[in-house]
Fold this protein.
Amino acid sequence: MSDLRTPLKNALGLGSAKQGAHHFLVQRTTAVALALLVPWVVWLVLEALHLDYAGAHALVAQPLNAVLLLAFVVAVFWHAQLGLQVVIEDYVHTKGTQVVLQILVKFLCFLGAAASALAVIRIALGR
Amino acid sequence: MPATARPLSPHLSIYRWQIQMVSSILHRATGIALAAGTILLVAVLLALASGPEAFAKMQAFCASWIGTVLLLGWTWSLAYHLLNGIRHLLQDLGWGYLPAQFVRNGWLVVAGSIVLTALVWTCVFAQRGAA
């Protein structure tokens, strides 16, 4: 294969645009983030269960909890978008429908992340 | 669909069901379920940011039988997707590819997801009982 590459390409050691593995890598990176964050979120939810409104509000408002929740909602919607993208690529074979669905999923995931982030920030800063 | 019919590999219905395909299908199915279920998390956070009345409505919904069923399904989906996701990450590193390991890890993930779900809901019902 190296015969097909120019001497400059060999010297630089670069392949194509280096974007081929981007989806794979971001999906794995967000997966690692979520593997760490999910047990903590489950703990937070179980902790909030026996609290009333003021207690739950105060729990989420704690800086560490608010920051980790922000990280969680960004990672979860990013990961969801990447996963749903592959599902749509695999099962929707009509070009037009696929494009519309992909954009729709991206919009919804962004809205979900933005709404959650706004809620967490509003709680953290005190209404 | 292409204009000329070309031979295709057999689809799902032709194979005997085995843990390898079930764990793969479940990973995808739980992923889709979790993406939809995350709307509930957004709703709870927005309710908490809106005020006590909205939060009380969300609490009532989560405590209702339909809310409980949804949350139970969501917990298992999360437990399964988390454990199988960790399995996928380890496979990305090249571990667990021998057929025997692959089958064993598949069953480990299924059993682990049920244990985790039971653990979480023991905590939930203990707190509901205490409240």
Notes: Chain B touches chain A through 32 residues (CB under 8 Å). The two ends of chain B are 58 Å apart (CA to CA).
